[in-house]
Design brief:
Largest interface: B-C, 98 and 96 residues
Distance between the termini of chain A: 85 Å
Helix content of chain A: 40-55%
Strand order of the largest sheet of chain A: 8-13-7-12-9
Oligomer: heterotrimer
Shape of chain B: flat
Largest sheet of chain A: 5 strands, mixed
CATH architecture of the largest domain in chain B: Orthogonal Bundle
CATH class of the largest domain in chain B: Mainly Alpha
Helix content of chain B: over 70%
Shape of chain A: globular
Order of helices and strands of chain B: HHHHHHHHHHHHHHHHH
Structural class of chain B: mainly alpha
Distance between the termini of chain B: 33 Å
Number of domains of chain B: 2
Radius of gyration of chain A: 26 Å
Number of strands of chain A: 18
CATH superfamily of the largest domain in chain B: MetI-like
CATH topology of the largest domain in chain B: MetI-like fold
Chains: A alpha/beta (about 500), B mainly alpha (about 300), C mainly alpha (about 300)
Number of helices of chain B: 17
Number of strands of chain B: 0
Number of helices of chain A: 24
C-alpha cells in the first residue's frame, strides 16, 4: 500500500512538471552578436548576465564583430546563411532589409506578436517604424527606439554638436560661449586659436573632423539633407543636386582654404579626428554629442592632457549668422535586431520575452543600471538610488565597466539615450549641456527627413551607392572658384545612378 | 582498339604511384578552385539567396552591360590598367638595380646587415606596413615634421591625387625590392667570374661590366620573373591599396579588386554584378598574360610554357 | 651550379677602395635608412605618451616614456588569443600546404604519363580564373567550415606558383640517380622520399618558411570566416585595433560611439605583431637566402 501511494506521488509530481515544461520549453541556448562587442572579452561571466540569463533560463555565445568589418560580416552571414540566431546591426538600411526579407533570409516575428509582447510593440510604435517596416503584414526586424519610456522629443534630431575649448576661449579674451554659437563666432575663435598656437606644438588645428563629419557640418547650412532624396514642391529630387549644397560647399571650401578646417581632414578616420581634439591639439570638433559620447570624450581628454574636462571642454549647437540653429531630423530609431531563418521558435520566443521585458521600465532600468539590489535600488517614490560608490576621483563606475554583458544587452531593448537624461551615473553638467542643446535645436531650422524614402525599396535604390562624403571632400579641397563647376560635374557624371531613384520615387509617391 | 586500350591501361598502371601522389592535389583544386568556379554562372544571373546559385533567375548579359554604365566600374578598370602597367615599368627594374649595386658592395658583414634590413619588410603583412607608413607619411607624421623643420611646407602625401599613385609604387618597392633583389643576386652569383676578369683586362670599368656582363647574364631569370610578375599582376596590390586608400584619392587608386570588394561587402550586394566584374577582370588578366608571353617569346625565345 | 659555401661574388675582389665603392656604399646606406627609419619611428611612438606624440611626432627617443600602450594590450588579451590561433593555423597549414605542393610538383616532374598535360593545364587555369569570393565562401560553408580555422588552413596554403618552382627543381635532378635506384628495385615512392626530397632540401626549407609567412600574414579569409572571439587570428585582431569603422550609421543615438585607439596603441600592437618575425628573421635569413640562391639557379 505504501508502495502504491509512493508511486502515485511520483506520478503526480511528474505530471505537475510536464505542463510547465511544455509551456516554456526549458533551458535554451543561442548565438548572438552585439553592436558593441570586441574579441576575447567574456560576456557571460558577470552578475548582470547571471541575473538575466537565470530570469529567462538561457545561456548564450557571443559572436563579436569589430566595427570596421561589421558590414562585411553581416552581409556574408545573411547571404551565406550562416547568421547567429540573433543579430543586431548598427547600420540598419531598409533597402537591404526588404531584399533579405523577400528572399526569406530573415525570420519573421510570430503572428500576433504585438499582443504577446506588448512592451516590445510599444517600443516599435514609438520608433515610428511599426507601419513602415511591415512587409506583407509581417515584421522581420525589431528597430530600437532612441526615446521611449523616459524621454520624449517633438522632432527627433541628431545629437551632433560642436565641441570647443572653454579654456582657450577665455585665454583669447572672447565672450564665453553659450548653448548656441554662430558660424562667425566659431570661425573667429578658430582663427585666433590657430594664430596664437594654443596647442603649443606649432601645429594647432582649428576644426578637427574627418570627411564624413565635415560634410555633415557644412551641409547643415544647405537647407537639404545632401546625401538623400526628398520632396520639394511635391516632386522628389536628389539632395546633392540642390543649390543649397553649393552654398555649403563654398562655405566649406572657404574654411578649408583659410585653414580653419584641419588640412588633414580627409586622411582621418573618425576616431583619429576625435583624438586630435581630445589630445589637445585641435580647437574644436563637430562630433557625436549624446551624453555617453560627451562623457567618453571627457575621459579621453583627461587621460591625454591631464586637464580638467569640466573646465576645459564645452559643447554647443551651431547657428547661422542670424542666430538660427540648424539641425537635422532623424528617425527615432537606431540599429535593428534580426533573427536567423533557421532559429528554433522556442528560442525566438525566449529572446523576444527578454526583449519585451527590457522595454518595461523595470527591465530598462535593470539593463541600464545593473543588478537590482547590487548596484541600485528603487526608492518608494520611484526614483533610483545608487548603491555603487564613487571612486577616488569622484567618478561613478558605469554599468559598462561593472558588467561586460551590458555591451550585449544594451543593444536589445530601448537605447541608452532614453534613460541617459536621468541616469544618476551620468555627470550632471554634461546632462544639462546636452539637454540645452537638444532644446535649442528644436527651436531652430530643422532639415526634415523624408520617411517615405527611408522605407522605400526598389532596384534603383539598391544600386544607389555613392559615398557622397568622399565627393564632398574632394571638391571642397579645390580652389574656391572651381567648386561649383566640379560639383555640378559630379552630379552630372552620376546621373545614371541617382536619376532612376528619383524616377522610381516619383512613380511611387507623386502620381 | 582493345590493343590501344591495353597499352593505355598498362601505362596508367605503371604510373600508379604518380597518380597516388597527385590525389591530394587534385582534391584540393577540385574542391577549392573548381567547385567555386561553378559560381561564375552568377555573372549571368540575379542572385537570390533563398533560391541559391542554381535557382536564381537568368538575366543574360545585363550585369556586364551594367559595368559599362557604372562610372565607378569604368574608373576602376582604367585605374587597374594604368596602375598595373606602371607597376611593371617602375617596380620591376628596381630590384635588378639594387641587386647590381649590392653586388658591387664590399664588406661581407655590413652587406649581411644591410640585406637583413632590406628584406625585412617583405615578411610583414600590409596591415602592419600600411599602419606604419600611414603614420609616417601623415600630415602630422615624421616626414612632414622633418620637412617643416627644414623650412618647407607640409604636404598631404597620402591624400594628394597627383602623388598617390607614385606613392603606391614607391611604397611597394620599399617593401618588396630587397627581397626580389635576392633572386637576382643569386643569378649574378651564377655568372662565370672569368668573364669579368677578361673584361677588366680589356679595360672596362664597373658600370660597363655591370651593363654588358651582369645584365645579360641574368636575362633568363629576368624573363621568367617578368612573365610570372605579369601573371600575378592583376591579383596583386589589393591589400596595399585597400589599406592605403582614402576618400581623397579613390578616383585614382580604386582598382577592380577594391571596387569588387566595395560592391560585394559595402553596399547592398548584387552578387551577380560583382561576379560579372570579377569575371571581366580575369579575362583581362588572361589577355595581358598572353600578350606578355608573346612579347617575351619574340624577344628572348622562351615563353612561360617552356 | 650549387655550392655549399656562401654566395660567391660575381667577380674577383679588388684590394683598393675606389670612389665607385664609396658612391655605392652611400646609396645603399641611404636605402637602408629609408627602410629602417619608419619602423624605428613606430617603435618610438609605441613607448610614448600620446601627449608626447602630438607634440613631437618624430623623435629619436621617446620624449615621455610610457608603457601604458603595452599595458592596455597585454591586459586586454586580444593579442594573445590572436597569437595562439595564428600559430595553430601556421604550423598545421604549412605542413599541409607544403605536403600537397611537393607531392603534386614531384608527380608533374615525372616524364609523360597519361593525363599529365591535361591535369597540368587544369591546374594552371586556376591561376587565371577563380569563382570569386562569394562562391568560395559558399563552398566553404557547404563543407561545414564556417567559423573554423581549418577553412583558412585548407584554402590558403597550396600555391600554383610554388608548385611550378618545385617542379623545375625536381626536373633538374639528374635522371641517372633514379635510374640507379630503380635498378636496385626501389619503387617510385621510395625514390621520392629517399632521393628526390633530400636533394631539394634547401629549396623546400625556404618555401616552407615562405608558406609559413603567408599563413602568418593572412587576414582576408580570417575576417570572413571566423566568428567566435576565441578563434580570431593575429592579423584580424591587429586590424580591429588599427582600423576604424566608418561612421555610416545615421547619427541619431548615442549608441553609435566609436572606440578611440590612440596612435600609441596602434603602434604598440603593430610592434607586438612584428616582434616574433624580428626575433626569428635574422637567424633564419641565412637559410632563406641560401634556399633562394639554390632554387633560383634552377629556374
Amino acid at each position: 500500500m505504501k508502495r502504491l501511494l509512493g508511486m502515485l506521488l511520483c506520478v503526480c509530481l511528474l505530471l505537475s512538471c510536464v505542463p510547465a515544461l511544455a509551456e516554456d520549453g526549458g533551458h535554451v541556448s543561442f548565438t548572438i552578436n552585439s553592436t558593441h562587442s570586441n574579441a576575447t572579452m567574456d560576456y557571460d561571466k558577470d552578475g548582470l548576465y547571471d541575473y538575466i540569463s537565470q530570469k529567462f533560463d538561457f545561456d548564450y555565445e557571443v559572436w563579436p564583430v569589430s566595427k570596421d568589418s561589421q558590414a562585411e560580416k553581416f552581409r556574408i552571414w545573411v547571404n551565406g546563411g550562416t547568421m547567429p540566431d540573433c543579430v543586431t546591426l548598427r547600420d540598419f538600411k531598409y533597402q537591404e532589409y526588404a531584399t533579405y526579407a523577400e528572399q526569406g533570409l530573415l525570420a519573421p516575428l510570430p503572428t500576433g506578436w504585438e499582443e504577446t509582447y506588448p512592451n516590445l510593440y510599444k517600443m516599435v510604435v514609438d520608433s515610428g517604424m511599426y507601419d513602415k517596416m511591415q512587409l506583407d503584414g509581417q515584421m522581420y526586424a525589431i528597430p530600437h527606439a532612441i526615446f521611449s519610456n523616459f524621454a520624449h522629443m517633438d522632432t527627433v534630431v541628431n545629437h551632433l554638436s560642436v565641441y570647443y575649448r572653454k579654456d582657450w576661449v577665455e585665454q583669447l579674451g572672447l565672450e564665453p560661449f553659450g548653448t548656441v554659437i554662430t558660424l562667425s563666432q566659431l570661425a573667429d575663435y578658430l582663427q585666433k586659436a590657430i594664430d596664437a598656437d594654443l596647442a603649443g606644438n606649432g601645429n594647432t588645428i582649428g576644426l578637427s573632423d574627418n570627411n564624413d563629419y565635415a560634410a555633415r557640418f557644412f551641409t547643415l547650412f544647405s537647407d537639404v539633407s545632401y546625401n538623400t532624396f526628398m520632396r520639394i514642391d511635391g516632386k522628389y529630387v536628389w539632395g546633392a543636386a540642390q543649390p543649397g549644397v553649393i552654398n555649403a560647399l563654398k562655405l566649406a571650401s572657404q574654411w578649408y582654404h583659410e585653414g580653419l578646417l584641419d588640412p588633414d581632414f580627409y586622411l582621418m578616420a573618425s576616431a583619429d579626428a576625435v583624438n586630435k581634439f581630445t589630445s589637445g591639439i585641435a580647437a574644436a570638433m563637430y562630433h557625436n554629442c549624446a551624453i555617453s559620447s560627451y562623457e567618453g570624450y571627457r575621459v579621453s581628454f583627461q587621460e591625454a592632457t591631464g586637464l580638467d574636462p569640466a573646465e576645459c571642454i564645452g559643447a554647443a549647437a551651431i547657428a547661422d549668422d542670424n542666430g538660427v540653429v540648424h539641425a537635422i531630423e532623424t528617425a527615432n530609431y537606431w540599429s535593428a535586431t534580426f533573427f536567423s531563418p533557421d532559429i528554433d521558435p522556442v528560442v525566438m520566443d525566449r529572446i523576444l520575452q527578454m526583449m519585451d521585458w527590457m522595454c518595461t521600465t523595470e527591465g530598462e532600468l535593470t539593463v541600464m543600471m545593473g543588478v537590482p539590489g547590487e548596484t541600485w535600488e528603487q526608492e518608494a517614490d520611484g526614483s533610483v538610488k545608487l548603491l555603487v560608490e564613487a571612486d577616488a576621483e569622484g567618478k561613478i563606475p558605469s554599468t559598462a565597466e561593472l558588467y561586460n554583458s551590458f555591451s550585449v544587452f544594451r543593444s536589445l531593448g530601448i537605447l541608452a539615450d532614453d534613460y541617459s537624461f536621468i541616469n544618476p551615473t551620468n555627470d550632471a553638467q554634461v546632462i544639462s549641456e546636452v539637454k540645452d542643446i537638444y532644446a535649442a535645436k528644436q527651436l531652430g531650422t530643422i532639415i526634415p527627413l523624408d520617411f517615405d524614402y527611408e522605407t522605400f525599396a526598389s532596384d534603383a535604390k539598391a544600386n544607389y551607392s555613392l559615398k557622397l562624403e568622399d565627393e564632398f571632400s574632394r571638391v571642397l579641397i579645390m580652389p574656391e572658384d572651381e567648386v561649383e563647376a566640379a560639383w555640378d560635374t559630379m552630379v552630372d557624371t552620376n546621373k545614371s545612378i541617382w536619376q532612376p531613384v528619383v524616377d522610381d520615387l516619383n512613380a511611387a509617391f507623386c502620381q | 582498339m582493345k590493343h590501344r586500350m591495353n597499352i593505355l591501361g598498362r601505362r596508367m598502371w605503371d604510373a600508379r604511384y604518380i597518380y597516388l601522389l597527385l590525389v591530394p592535389g587534385i582534391l584540393y583544386f577540385a574542391i577549392f578552385h573548381y567547385g567555386p568556379m561553378g559560381g561564375l554562372i552568377l555573372a549571368f544571373k540575379k542572385f537570390n539567396a533563398r533560391l541559391g546559385i542554381l535557382g536564381s533567375p537568368w538575366v543574360g548579359l545585363d550585369n556586364f552591360r551594367r559595368i559599362f554604365s557604372t562610372p565607378a566600374a569604368l574608373l576602376a578598370i582604367r585605374n587597374t590598367f594604368v596602375i598595373n602597367l606602371s607597376r611593371l615599368v617602375f617596380e620591376f627594374p628596381a630590384p635588378i638595380i639594387l641587386a647590381l649595386l649590392i653586388n658591387e658592395m664590399r664588406g661581407r658583414h655590413v652587406k649581411r646587415i644591410y640585406q637583413t634590413v632590406y628584406t625585412f619588410p617583405h615578411f610583414l603583412s600590409w596591415v602592419v606596413v600600411s599602419t606604419i607608413l600611414t603614420n609616417f607619411l601623415s600630415n602630422g607624421g615624421a616626414v612632414n615634421t622633418i620637412i617643416v623643420q627644414l623650412g618647407g611646407e607640409r604636404t598631404n602625401f597620402l591624400a594628394n591625387e597627383a602623388i598617390f599613385r607614385p606613392l603606391l609604387y614607391a611604397t611597394h618597392i620599399w617593401k618588396e625590392m630587397g627581397w626580389n633583389a635576392i633572386i637576382y643576386m643569386a643569378a649574378i652569383a651564377g655568372i662565370d667570374p672569368s668573364l669579368y676578369e677578361a673584361a677588366t683586362v680589356d679595360g672596362a670599368n664597373r658600370m660597363q661590366q655591370a651593363w654588358h656582363i651582369s645584365l645579360p647574364g641574368i636575362l633568363p631569370t629576368i624573363v621568367v620573373l617578368f612573365i610570372l610578375t605579369v601573371g600575378r599582376l592583376m591579383n596583386a596590390g589589393f591589400e596595399q591599396i585597400f589599406y592605403l586608400q582614402n576618400a581623397a584619392v579613390k578616383q585614382v587608386s580604386d582598382i577592380l579588386d577594391t571596387y569588387i570588394y566595395d560592391i560585394t561587402f559595402k553596399a547592398t550586394p548584387s552578387y551577380g554584378f560583382s561576379t560579372a566584374v570579377g569575371m571581366f577582370k580575369s579575362v583581362v588578366n588572361l589577355v595581358l598574360l598572353l600578350i606578355a608571353n608573346k612579347l617575351v617569346k619574340t624577344v628572348s625565345g622562351t615563353g612561360l610554357m617552356n | 651550379m650549387t655550392t655549399a659555401k656562401a654566395p660567391a661574388e660575381g667577380r674577383p675582389k679588388k684590394k683598393k677602395l675606389t670612389s665607385g665603392d664609396i658612391v655605392v656604399f652611400v646609396i645603399l646606406t641611404f636605402v637602408m635608412l629609408i627602410i629602417f627609419f619608419p619602423f624605428y619611428n613606430a617603435v618610438v611612438i609605441s613607448f610614448e605618451t600620446s601627449r608626447a606624440y602630438s607634440l613631437y611626432p618624430v623623435s629619436l627617443i621617446p620624449m615621455e616614456w610610457s608603457l601604458a600602450n603595452y599595458d592596455y594590450l597585454i591586459q586586454n588579451g586580444q593579442i594573445w588569443t590572436g597569437y595562439q590561433n595564428t600559430i595553430f593555423i601556421t604550423v598545421i597549414g604549412t605542413i599541409y600546404g607544403m605536403t600537397i605542393s611537393v607531392m603534386t610538383a614531384y608527380a608533374f616532374s615525372r616524364p609523360a604519363f597519361p593525363g599529365k598535360k591535361l591535369l597540368f593545364a587544369l591546374m594552371m587555369f586556376t591561376m587565371l580564373f577563380s569563382g570569386g569570393m562569394v562562391p568560395t565562401y559558399l563552398q566553404l560553408k557547404t563543407l561545414g567550415l564556417v567559423n573554423s580555422r581549418f577553412a583558412i588552413i585548407l584554402l590558403v596554403g597550396v600555391s600554383t606558383y610554388n608548385i611550378i618552382i618545385f617542379k623545375s627543381g625536381f626536373e633538374q635532378t639528374p635522371p641517372s640517380l633514379s635510374e640507379a635506384a630503380k635498378i636496385d628495385g626501389a619503387n617510385e615512392l621510395v625514390i621520392f622520399f629517399h632521393i628526390m626530397l633530400p636533394l631539394q632540401s634547401a629549396l623546400l626549407a625556404t618555401f616552407t618558411l615562405f608558406t609559413a609567412v603567408t599563413y602568418w600574414n593572412e587576414w582576408f579569409w580570417s575576417m570572413l570566416m571566423i566568428n567566435s572571439s576565441n578563434k580570431m587570428t593575429l592579423q584580424t585582431v591587429l586590424r580591429s585595433i588599427v582600423a576604424e569603422a566608418s561612421a555610416d550609421a545615421d547619427i541619431a543615438s548615442g549608441e553609435a560611439g566609436l572606440d578611440v585607439f590612440s596612435q600609441g596603441v596602434k603602434m604598440a600592437s603593430v610592434f607586438m605583431v612584428m616582434a616574433p618575425i624580428m626575433c626569428f628573421y635574422p637567424f633564419l635569413q641565412k637559410y632563406f637566402v641560401k634556399g633562394v640562391l639554390v632554387g633560383s639557379v634552377k629556374m
